[in-house]
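Think of the structure tokens as a kind of shorthand, similar to the way a musician reads notation: each symbol stands for something richer, in this case the local conformation of the backbone. In the example below we present two proteins back to back. Begin with the first one, reading the sequence and then the tokens, and try to describe in your own words what changes along the chain.
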Amino acid sequence: MFNNNNNYNSQGVPSFMAYGSVPVGLPKGAVPQNATGGAVPQWALGKQNPTSPFGQPTQLAQNNTQANDGSTNISSNSSDDIFNRVLNKTLGEEGGYESRADKIDTPTNMGFQQATLDRFKAQHPDLSQGYPENVKDLTYSQGKLIARKDYFDKYRIGEINHQPLQETMFDSFFNHSPQAPALWAQKAINKNTNMNIAEDGIFGSETINAMNSLSPKEIINVNNSIIDQRLADYESEKQTNPNPYYSNYTIGLPQRFDRFRIK
């Protein structure tokens, strides 16, 4: 879900706050519902939606894979194709509207927080005419425009050459304050290559160019190192987050993160 708040974990690294709801005590085979009858985020169940909660097709839960020669997919699609693919993969992890305090820490719909909607409307009054006041009423097409302008375009995901890294970085920016994914990528590059790029938490040309110069083996190592850092950040957040329900409603996050791992 969208979270661009500037939160910091115990190491001073900007972190995430909220992730959807977790079903409790469901009978076998029951379909989990949120407060308004919509499906809860699928990562909370340890799996990904085969279709998004708004009727849009998404990928089935599949890990990033590598070809027989050890190389990973290099994207040659248009920017629109890349956007639709990464958005569908990420939104396949999300659910409908949720506002219960024991399920999520801020009202969220399809992964979009109320603060995200408010900020988009303030920054893009020309694009957001007719957008609702309450995130509960946000439509898929409206959310898609927010995702395109404030995440995909802003963080230049379409300039990344390699499909697994496109998906990993988009999902990371989607869920975390912006400095954290950039810093994880920079640390992963420096750890797994001979490069020495700035670790400044800014996802700009230096970091993108470094990503695009990775060898097939380095792509795998860098991608998975980013996932490892996401997991470490989550474990740290569990220890420090004051919300008593946090560990319960984020229990599916490790499985979500692992679905972006190259195996």
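Once you have a description of the first chain, move to the second and do the same.
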Amino acid sequence: MTTPISNRYEFVLLYDVENGNPNGDPDAGNMPRIDPETGYGIVTDVCLKRKVRNFVEMMQGDAAGYRIYIKEGIPLNANHKEAYIAVGLEPGKKASVEGVAKAREWMCKNFFDIRTFGAVLMVGDNCGQVRGPIQINFSRSIDPIVQQEVTITRLTVTREEEAEKERTMGRKHIIPYGLYRAEGYISAKLANDPTKGTGFSEEDLKLVWDALVNMFEHDHSAARGKMAARKLFIFKHDSDLGNAPSHKLFELVDVKKNEGAVAPRKFGDYTVKAPKPGKLEGFDGVELIEKL
């Protein structure tokens, strides 16, 4: 962690899934999430943030400044208590405004995902509230998806009293193919503001780009099938407040199904159109960077 970022960014991530479930819906029997009105597939922001957290934890472990706040098996309030002790506050007692600010600063400094995505730290020992500089929209598939339920056979049983059955049946929920688009925002002001900033740095930003490109490579499972990041377009502004509306920049990246590809089954069934990398014509102070 060094100097906080001083440029605003937006990004467009294209990724696909083949014969897998990118994000199951627990309210629908873990079927792939779908917009019931249009049939388009949906992947939540929480799902992608989890993959970023997992990648960072895999790369950094528990290195100073790169711990993960939201992780399995660790009560969140235990981290709050640690922060209070570290800054000289007494756990279990109400802290002053200045004390809460010190605890918040300690949490941002030590936990990568708080510094990046923000968090509400007011339960238990109050460490304040953090607005993270990076926010990601729900992903949506380029075309409507087809949810499939595949029956599978397991040549064993779970309980001893079922031994005579010899085998059990199960189900997997997949989509044959789907190309998804996620859009995200990175606010320099929420990183470098003297009082509200998280300290999110250029080194942190590089790690986020690496995570978006590589997170699926370290998240393979039978349930998720074949998932891969296909394109990452980054819009870099030459100021912290930005030089163009984000929606206008997002519109520059156009993804269309190829003529004749009635039921797409691969990334090559689509055409992706975007300006050439470099300074954008008509958008002074904005540069396009293509990572994939």
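Compare your description with these statements about the second chain. Residues 9-290 form one domain.
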